[in-house]
Task: inverse folding
């Protein structure tokens, strides 16, 4: 005597239409201004944050961090002390990028535009 168990057939639900969703900032390609020269004091935190944000935006666009830092150093025309600060902030931000993206998502209803602003906010949040 064969004891067959009844099988349950499950039909897949119809696909829902793709809803409009907010694009996270990491999906947006950065638009950088390579000709922009900031008029900030060479030893200011603002210049270090701007350079680090530039590097982070380039990394989010697909560049390697060492190459992005070289570009950021050129854009900011940084002194050796400022280069160290830019590098420190950029590496710290990259290590804490998941946390800063989560904080940014909690604080805003949509991704900050332009992407350079999102990178600047991530750099500032990583220092907190």
Result:
């Amino acid at each position: 005597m064969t004891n067959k168990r009844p099988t349950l057939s499950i039909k897949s639900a119809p696909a829902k239409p793709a809803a409009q969703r907010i694009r996270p900032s990491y999906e947006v390609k950065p638009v950088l201004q390579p000709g922009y020269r900031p008029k900030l004091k060479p030893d200011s935190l603002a210049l270090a944050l701007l350079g680090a944000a530039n590097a982070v935006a380039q990394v989010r666009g697909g560049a390697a961090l060492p190459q992005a830092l070289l570009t950021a150093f050129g854009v900011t025309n940084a002194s050796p002390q400022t280069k160290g600060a830019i590098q420190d902030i950029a590496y710290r931000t990259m290590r804490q990028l998941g946390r800063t993206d989560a904080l940014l998502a909690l604080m805003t209803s949509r991704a900050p535009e332009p992407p350079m602003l999102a990178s600047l906010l991530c750099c500032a949040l990583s220092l907190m």
